[in-house]
Design brief:
The protein is mostly beta strands. It is built from one helix and 15 strands. The protein has one helix spanning 4-19; strands spanning 46-53, 57-58, 61-62, 69-77, 82-90, 101-113, 116-126, 142-151, 154-161, 177-183, 186-188, 191-201, 210-221, 225-235, 267-275. The longest helix has 16 residues, at 4-19. The protein is globular and about 45 Å long. The relative contact order is 0.14.
């Protein structure tokens, strides 16, 4: 029996594939802000990816109430260094009221200077149908400018919020930022260690600032398959992210109070990805 969410997701991804036949990673983890892009196009300039994860975690916080998610993307990488891409993930309506999908659009330019790689780009995060549980009528959609540097197994990315709205929360988030450092040593035999630390700074609303951490291991298999497992944790001293007012879930709590979920608790995610 098919599921409406899966049908919607697959239909959206199919339409994107058709539209991108002339032009393909996900923002640097599939986490909004650390998904590995742009991709390496060894043969064709267009590549794709599909993934199933037991828990979609972005910048330390679950995006789907700790439940499994279906994901996929298309990327186009021109030999000049210009890249364009799109990526989608299913979401939980318990967090994103009225919405079930995250749709990212991104592009930019990447190149190298000797052993140093760099990226300049932009990302737009769209959450069709979602409205904020914090401020009535405010959407989650927002845009960031990305600056990235890489050297050997090390990579650092800086994201600057270019839009006034930011993730459906603060009234003026323009100028907010997220900085991350990723270290990915090759362990041999297809195994790669994944180490990550990130810091989020919310302009004019320091109560929402946070830090997040990740440690994981991935294993690459023949045929473009990769299996990765990671433990993540987010911390914010003011508990802004751990006690949001998800009024839509009031019926989940028999006490009559709104149901609260620690979105950034220590959690584990197992992700199977297929690239093509």
């Amino acid at each position: 029996m098919s599921h409406p969410l899966i049908e919607t997701f697959c239909a959206s991804l199919l339409s994107l594939a058709v539209a991108s036949a002339f032009a393909q990673t996900a923002p640097a983890t599939p986490d909004a802000g650390s998904k590995p892009f742009p991709p390496t196009a060894d043969v064709l300039p267009i590549t794709g990816n599909m993934a199933f994860t037991t828990n979609y975690v972005a910048r330390g916080f679950t995006q789907n109430w700790g439940q499994p998610a279906l994901q996929g993307g298309l990327d186009y990488a021109h030999p000049s260094g210009v890249y364009l891409g799109t990526w989608l993930s299913s979401l939980s309506g318990s967090e994103f009221r009225g919405g079930t999908i995250e749709w990212d659009l991104y592009g930019g330019y990447t190149s190298t200077v000797g052993p140093l790689g760099y990226t300049v780009g932009a990302v737009y995060y769209a959450y069709p149908g979602s409205t904020s549980p914090f401020i009535e009528g405010r959407k989650y959609d927002y845009a960031e400018i990305k600056l990235g540097l890489s050297y050997s197994i090390y990579a650092a990315n800086y994201y600057y919020t270019a839009t006034k709205d930011w993730f459906g929360t603060v009234p003026n988030g323009r100028g907010s930022s997220y900085f991350e450092v990723n270290v990915n040593p090759d362990l041999g035999s297809g195994y790669t260690l994944q180490l990550h630390v990130g810091v989020g700074d919310i302009k004019h609303n320091s109560v929402a600032n946070w830090k997040d951490y990740k440690i994981g291991v991935s294993k690459a298999f023949d045929g473009g398959w990769t299996l990765a497992g990671a433990v993540t944790k987010a911390t914010d001293k003011n508990s802004f992210w751990t006690v949001p007012d998800f009024a839509v879930n009031a019926s989940d709590d028999t006490s009559g109070y709104n149901y609260v979920k620690p979105l950034g608790k220590t959690q584990f995610a197992l992700t199977l990805t297929k690239t093509f």
